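2024-03-11 09:14:02 INFO worker-7 job=invfold-0412 stage=load source=structure_tokens
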């Protein structure tokens, strides 16, 4: 009797780039794409002996080492994605080596401390506004531009912008709000431009992400993370960075992914569609989670309530106008 051969991982032979693969969602996505069989380029600014301005210990070298330890293929390259010549050189190097690029996921500045401060419009510190926009937005446009240029000749490819929250809103200060909103809306605009070239693009957000910095915030490790639920019960619905990574890997393997182009998805929505589980077998679903708002200041709850009401009205109005405009187009 012949021994049944196991099928190859779904992304075998594919080449992926994860910008911002140093930590958090970026690291989890890089690991998941490699787990699914892709060769993964891990880029970012933090390398051994030369950490980024975030003052955190994680590096892209560690990410690549974790992938290799699990039997995957990974290449770590230091790239500052705010500098177009470095991004141009990166894509040229990938094409020289592999003659293809199939998947580009951008998670740069996902946990940029400059965007982490909270405050109302009139409290905004604009000292680092230009740096925030350069790091969190301009870098994304630079990378997406060169991803598109590189993918167009083959008429295939997937570009994913990793963002925060599955609504228009996101971010705790005006600069962060502008960046997070653009990360969601730009793929919508790009989708129409790239569809004739066979390229799919969309935005994806994780749920309550158990990144390295979030674990540190709760004073726990990945081994005892549930203890963080004593401080905030919502944390019990959190997901590891690998979860959003597996969701994106499943999306990349879907031959009908083009039907989703331009859209914004939560990791939990993709997980439902593709039957994805976290590394521990859990299926965290932030979208269906009944949020405990008692852990937040009442002022924030009032702001969320008013903001959600206004956003709903805004989107309904825009949708009606868009349908009216569409009827005018031959």
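2024-03-11 09:14:09 INFO worker-7 stage=emit residues=330
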């Amino acid at each position: 009797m012949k021994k049944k051969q196991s099928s190859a991982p779904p992304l075998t032979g594919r080449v992926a780039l994860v910008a911002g693969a140093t930590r958090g969602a970026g690291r989890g996505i890089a690991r998941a794409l490699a787990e699914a069989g892709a060769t993964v380029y891990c880029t970012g600014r933090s390398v051994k002996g030369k950490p980024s301005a975030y003052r955190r210990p994680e590096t892209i070298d560690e990410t690549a080492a974790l992938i290799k330890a699990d039997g995957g293929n990974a290449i770590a390259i230091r790239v500052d994605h705010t500098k177009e010549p470095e991004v141009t050189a990166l894509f040229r190097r990938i094409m020289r080596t592999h003659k293809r690029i199939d998947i580009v996921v951008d998670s740069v500045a996902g946990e940029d401390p400059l965007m982490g401060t909270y405050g109302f419009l009139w409290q905004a510190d604009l000292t680092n506004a230009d740096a925030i926009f350069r790091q969190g937005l301009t870098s994304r446009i630079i990378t997406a531009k060169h991803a598109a240029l590189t993918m167009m000749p083959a008429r295939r490819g997937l570009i994913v912008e990793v963002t925060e929250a599955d609504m228009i809103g996101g971010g705790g200060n005006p600069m962060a709000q502008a960046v997070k909103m653009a990360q969601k809306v730009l793929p919508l605009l790009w989708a129409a431009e790239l569809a004739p070239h066979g390229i799919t693009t969309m935005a994806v957000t994780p749920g309550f992400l158990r990144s390295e910095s979030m674990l540190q915030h709760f004073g726990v490790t990945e081994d005892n993370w549930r203890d963080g639920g004593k401080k905030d019960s919502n944390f019990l619905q959190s997901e590891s960075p690998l979860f959003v990574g597996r969701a994106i890997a499943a999306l990349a393997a879907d031959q009908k992914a083009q039907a989703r182009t331009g859209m914004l998805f939560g990791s939990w929505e993709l997980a439902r569609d593709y039957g994805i589980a976290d590394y521990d077998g859990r299926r965290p679903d932030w979208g269906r989670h009944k949020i405990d708002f008692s852990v937040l200041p009442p002022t924030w709850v009032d702001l969320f309530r008013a903001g959600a009401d206004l956003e709903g009205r805004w989107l309904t109005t825009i949708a009606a106008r868009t349908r009216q405009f569409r009827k005018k187009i031959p």
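2024-03-11 09:14:09 INFO worker-7 stage=report msg="The first strand starts at residue 15 and ends at 19."
2024-03-11 09:14:10 INFO worker-7 job finished
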